[in-house]
Amino acid sequence: MGLLHPRRLGQIPDQVLADAVDPGASGTTGGRRLGRGRASLPPQPSSDPRLIADRERPGAWFVRVAGTDQSFVDPGDPTWLEFDYVRRVAAVVDQFAPAGQRLRCVHVGGAGMTLARYVAATRPTSAQIVFEPDAGLTAAVRAVAPLPPRCGVKVRARDGRAGLAELPDDYADIVIVDAFAGASVPGELATQEWFAAVARVLDGDGVMIMNLTDQAPLTWSRRTIAGIVPGFAAGRAGPPDRARPATRLALAVEPSTLTGRRFGNLVVAAGGRLDPAAWHRSSAREAFPYRVLAGEELTRWLGGARPFDDSDATASPPPPGGPTVFR
Predict the structure, then answer these.
(1) Is residue 34 within 8 Å of 12, Cβ to Cβ?
(2) CB 315 within 8 Å of CB 187
(3) Pick from 209, 11, 247: which is nearest to 105 by CA?
(4) Do residues 2 and 17 touch, judged by C-beta distance below 8 A?
(5) Which of 32, 28, 77, 33 is CA-nearest to residue 54?
(6) Structural domain contains residue 7
């Protein structure tokens, strides 16, 4: 779900896009920049009221569920990332692996499949699974914004818990969790048991990236994030030959949300290959920078919060005043 997304160019490192065009051309500058070289696609009408055509980018769509913009997709340029928080997620993907390197990605929550399209465009041949329980929404999105042929993206009508249970151990390099029921993150995706399930599916030093939304005093986010490290430890328990690197944890958050002035997005990432310092540098280059908390600073912010478990799972707070529409 994207909040307060003023229209402006997103930022993907030039080399990421250059390498996506020519993975062997180190240092080249001929790669396509974000939002440039866009394919011209004829507008396709939609009968689904959840799909809102973008007036400024013909052929692009907002996915609006329960009155809240949850996704933006431009099939003519899948590297155009409209929402701030999506760029924070993509930054972790870009740090994890160079453009052109094949990845195994699992997406919990589909909507417009923005990030699955991004990975397919920047890392062709990647194998991706999207778990989106709303098959009707998936069909509506694909009718106006089809996935490219042979893009490696498979969409399954499953919720996150059921979908991950079907996957083998050590399956994915990256798990991206961006799932909402209406305007709230489901409680079942905020518990230690959920994070144990994610850890089981991640391979070696794989990384989970999760989008949260919350408002002051951010109690729900603190309790959710507090469950990640113990959940990962439980999910990765096993024989010595499955030893894993220590779980690194970091949080990227809009400063106004962190200080309690507004409802907004918090993006949390965890895994052995996570680089919080690099995430901080990329976030600082944005027109509206996110704060990145890690290490002792993040521990202090968590303040000894008690993690959720399945016995007291709680959905995230909805936006104040009800559904939020920004366009």
Answers:
(1) yes
(2) yes
(3) 209
(4) no
(5) 77
(6) no
| Residue 108 within a domain | yes
Give the torsion through C-alpha atoms of 324, 227, 92, 204, to 10 deg: -150
Q: What is the pTM of this model?
A: 0.85
Q: Whole-angstrom Cα distance, residue 327 to residue 319?
A: 16
pLDDT of 111-143, one tens digit each?
889 999 999 999 999 999 999 998 988 888 888
Count CA atoms within 13 Å of residue 123 on its CB side: 21
CATH code for position 18: 3.40.50.150
For 176-219, how does the pLDDT look when each residue is reduced to its tens digit (9 = 90+)? 999 998 889 999 999 999 999 999 999 989 999 999 999 999 99
Tokens 């794989």, residue?
206
Separation of alpha carbons 50 and 66, rounded Å: 8
Strands 153-156 and 172-177: unpaired
Kindly report the backbone phi and psi dihedral angles of residue 136, in degrees, each rounded to the nearest multiple of 5, phi listed first.
-65, -40
- Given the structure tokens 């009718």, which residue do they identify? 143
Q: Is the pLDDT of residue 4 over 60?
A: no
| 313 domain-assigned | no
**252-281 burial string, b = 16+ CB within 10 Å, else e?**
bbbeebbeeeebbbbbbbbbbbbbbeebbe
210-233 average pLDDT score: 96
- The number of domains in the chain is 1
